[in-house]
Amino acid sequence: MKFTKEDKILLYRNMVRGRKYDEELVELFAKVKVPGMWHSGIGQEAVGAGAATFLRKDDWLEPTHRGYTFGLAKGVDGKRWLAEHLGRATGFAKGKGGHYVAPKGSGVLPFGGTIGSAFPISAGAGISAKRLGKGQVVVCLFGDGAAQRGTLHESMNLAAVWQLPVVWVCENNLYAVTAHLSQSMAVKDIADLAHGYNMPGVIIDGQDVLAVAEAVMEAVERARAGEGPSLIECKTYRYRNHGEGGAFPTSYRTKEEEEEWKKRDPIVLFRQCLLDEGDATAEELDAIDKELVQEVLEASRWAQESPWPEVGQAFTDLYAD
Amino acid sequence: MKFTKEDKILLYRNMVRGRKYDEELVELFAKVKVPGMWHSGIGQEAVGAGAATFLRKDDWLEPTHRGYTFGLAKGVDGKRWLAEHLGRATGFAKGKGGHYVAPKGSGVLPFGGTIGSAFPISAGAGISAKRLGKGQVVVCLFGDGAAQRGTLHESMNLAAVWQLPVVWVCENNLYAVTAHLSQSMAVKDIADLAHGYNMPGVIIDGQDVLAVAEAVMEAVERARAGEGPSLIECKTYRYRNHGEGGAFPTSYRTKEEEEEWKKRDPIVLFRQCLLDEGDATAEELDAIDKELVQEVLEASRWAQESPWPEVGQAFTDLYAD
Amino acid sequence: MREISMREALKEAIREELLRDQTVHIWGESIESKGGGFAICRGLTDEFGERAKDTPLAETAIAGSAVGAAFTGLRPIVEIMFSDFAFVCGDEIFNKMAKARYVYGGQDGFSLPIVVRMKVGGYVSIGAEHSQTPLAPFMHAPGLKIAFPTTPYDAKGLLKTAVRDDNPVMFFEHILHYGARGEVPEEEYLIPFGKARVRREGDDVTVVAIGYMVDLALKIAEEMVQDGVSLEVVDPRTLQPLDMDAIMRSIKKTGRVIFVDEDVTCCGVPAELMARVYERLTEAGKPPVPMARVGAANVPIPYSPPLEKAVLPSPEKIAAAVEKVLV
Amino acid sequence: MREISMREALKEAIREELLRDQTVHIWGESIESKGGGFAICRGLTDEFGERAKDTPLAETAIAGSAVGAAFTGLRPIVEIMFSDFAFVCGDEIFNKMAKARYVYGGQDGFSLPIVVRMKVGGYVSIGAEHSQTPLAPFMHAPGLKIAFPTTPYDAKGLLKTAVRDDNPVMFFEHILHYGARGEVPEEEYLIPFGKARVRREGDDVTVVAIGYMVDLALKIAEEMVQDGVSLEVVDPRTLQPLDMDAIMRSIKKTGRVIFVDEDVTCCGVPAELMARVYERLTEAGKPPVPMARVGAANVPIPYSPPLEKAVLPSPEKIAAAVEKVLV
Ligand SMILES: Cc1ncc(C[n+]2csc(CCOP(=O)(O)OP(=O)(O)O)c2C)c(N)n1
Ligand SMILES: Cc1ncc(C[n+]2csc(CCOP(=O)(O)OP(=O)(O)O)c2C)c(N)n1
Ligand SMILES: [Mg+2]
Ligand SMILES: [Mg+2]
Hints:
With 321 residues, chain A is of the alpha/beta class.
């Protein structure tokens, strides 16, 4: 895929929007009493933005628990997502679900609290996509920890043998909670797993949003053309701890490692790239940043001011009639 | 491993014993009212015998549901196994378990009725073997259908990352019940899966008992030496349908395919090999055959004449005290 | 009216729904190559192509893909060969199918139109992992619906209703029922969920029997006529929704009730039903009626026929429970 | 006596058992790098090396490997971070751990000495798949033992007993209990399974409360003193084995009982307990006593705090049930 200047600006916006929402959530968790959990995705924005920005509206995206970037890029209304996260009546599920809930119309698939349950759900969406014949594609995001679940094997095999239009995108940030990948997997590269499913597997610099977008969209076009699934591994890093507020140790990784990765911040890198290529001026990008800060502040205020759900809501919506 | 003449005769005996028990069970299911199910392993004896014959008594073997060969070769008393299969009080579990039950002393691991549950059980035995430091090794037998379960991924990965002494031996007979492997897996060779666990994976002629024994014992020695797990795929074929007595269609494979495979019967091939190499005479082998026919007949009579368990047995043995 | 087997009734239901609605698809192990575990679907692939398809041996993929497919526009029917294997895909059933709609607050008309067909039942000596009738764990998972037909007529009507239901339905088929024959009209019909059926009228004791237990209850009911005892046999047909009104109506008539279930007794469905009857009566200011329950003994299901017989419910055990509440 | 938190009590139990018996090993997600999901095991790897080890993110491997290891000579303690995830390894728990000994007819002294530690409990707004207290499905699986301590003292004594038990023990730890402090002696002690503890003596109503529900029951018991109502709070401590005698003794004294459980009400443990009390009384020729149950509403556990509060048991709901049986 060839990216126009507008495409690139959109990628930039989507990364920055994800970052700003994320920073706001980190702050809310630190300062305000907020229900639930927040798994910050700061540092990993290139993967979510690169994977989601150029999908069709009716393509499906399977989320992870980390950050908002992918979902915002897929078109989820961040303000209502945040409200859901804060447990408010104005959230997508009236507060019943928490942040793993996005509207169906956005093309975001159901996400479960059990890591690894994303795989068969994505395969299932792939069955629909293939059988309904509208050329839809499914992108399944998953972490390196998720890659250790057996559901990966069953689902990648099913997708491969049925040639389903699913693109498996691994957000390999090297850790699952506190366990380093080398303690948990026998291979260094998740892309190696592709071999067992007879599908292409590539490794991408997950801090380079263009590289991610290119690789994902190439795989998406293959899938759309009926050529089956592929696996894309994006090497990335989360700046913050596994979750906010919990009692997470910091000893499991070194300060040096953290600093090393921060030198390759995906937003900083891409900003420089846009400037270098003459796709935007510093003023233009600053204006975008400012606009998004404003958007997020307003969203956050709106969400925080939203009412709590009525208690009676607890007893509705169990069954469709 | 170098095989002596005695080793080879033992392999032959173990294959023939497995075949004779199997033929007896097929007959019992056809003629006598027998409880349960029988999954005949006729045609696949080289794998069970090759994998189990030269293990140490305290090595562990994880069984499959198909045939008796591996278990008999590991030292299970066939007569009591058969009695268990017939639901008699003289069976290993007094009839409570059915044939998936062998005594602990034989080194046969627990087998579950859910295909694929063998993988984590074997990994667990590998943890014991490694931690207890007595040089034990675990051999896990599994079918090509089982290879599609997610438990394979979780367990092979665990075994590889913890460098457990487990040898994964796939009995690839091309079908799971009636589904051909090409309908169910994206790779043609199960050995390809080894790549995702950074362990050796080899393909073996599963009709050649010496080839199986060599490959397995080489992997066993690697594992014993602390060099971790390996995967061995044995290409084989079952002559009979998935199970006896059930309403299994025959349309899912061709008569030609069946005939082609029967030309390479593992016992016939090995018999010829023993004769060619001068390891035994036809008379010696005939004598073995005859002796084993006799052994099985007596075992079967004994099992059939064994009493049913007392009804009170149904309510004991739930908890250890 | 023509008589067909429950096997044929189930197949007709699936076939008719596949014909009626292009979004209905069915997949599972050996569906195409064998018609599924119990050959219900034999021939469907010839007629419907990939809409009736073999999967790999992979229950999490089967159940989980049903979730993803149902969310995105299909109405999957999937088969889990033996209900004992439902625990292989426990996360997909109990955490996803059961909870998703509620967790999504019903937004966007969110629904998961899934049917999970599962063989249940013992009495055929195939061991602890192939003989269960695990009903309580599913009834303990709000968000699932549960159907368990006992005649070919009910099987066809309930399965068609299940396919059209917008919720995940656990559809149980007893191994000893597949061959059972009964009248089934040629014309299309549906059976609504949540309507019990009185399978036999009687005056002295209400027997609420689930699944194959209906057969045992009807058998002993005939025998007990000689003792001058008249049993009313109520088949709930669906456990979720459950027709408590029908059960209470029958109890009002007989004044006594026993609950019969093939599942393990401890924390089983009969305990729940006893609690509900007790609560209903108490809330209405009425005294409790004599109640008893019959279930499988609290052990895994043994393999050997005499042991299995000792563990599972039998007409004699039902009779003993009847005697208990008659005292 | 010194006071420590339940977190510390649990760690002491594990540490002492690791010291006592070389075959005791512990593994689970982030055990080494974080001390497990709730940091109970922090530091154990420094002391015991590979005997306290991180696993991959793989519940079937964790639970299934415990089966294989227990069969072959180890006494594994494994951690499933959240009990909701037990359904990920449902086959390993319900089909293997629960059934294996029985299916092996107890031969060769067959046993599976396994402890599966799991966090349970809601009230902290972390959503439908992290907030359950799924007790009934485990109690419905004969062959498992079940412990659910409510004080640091009980936690330590029961966990040590669990490690020495030759059966698979499901060991539940409530999220709101980790920080709770209480007296725990320095000297070693064990608490036998199957012995309930009367946590508060009272005359009017027996409250059988499970797990964290004991805290709620004790709270409301103090408040109801003002209304002149005296509650006796019984903590079964283990559900399998279950101390029915203690429950019946208390009921004999008070003449009324309510059962309080955080799990989903439908087909929950209280229904089973109601059935057992009813059966015990009937068999003894006695009339039933007033009974009621309190459990979570029959929905998944919602995320938003006010909704979660509406769904889960509360002191007020317990009080309402007490009023019901007092009438
Ligand atoms: C089945 C299951 N096991 C464990 C957990 C607890 N858990 C939540 S996030 C997480 C780590 C996931 O790691 P990874 O997939 O690499 O994603 P990351 O958090 O690094 O983005 C774990 C173990 C869970 N939610 N579900
Ligand atoms: C979890 C689970 N799913 C399905 C089955 C039903 N089943 C029994 S044997 C079998 C096929 C196994 O195939 P394979 O592993 O290739 O072994 P083979 O029978 O060919 O020896 C199936 C699907 C089962 N027992 N357990
Ligand atoms: Mg990660
Ligand atoms: Mg096979």
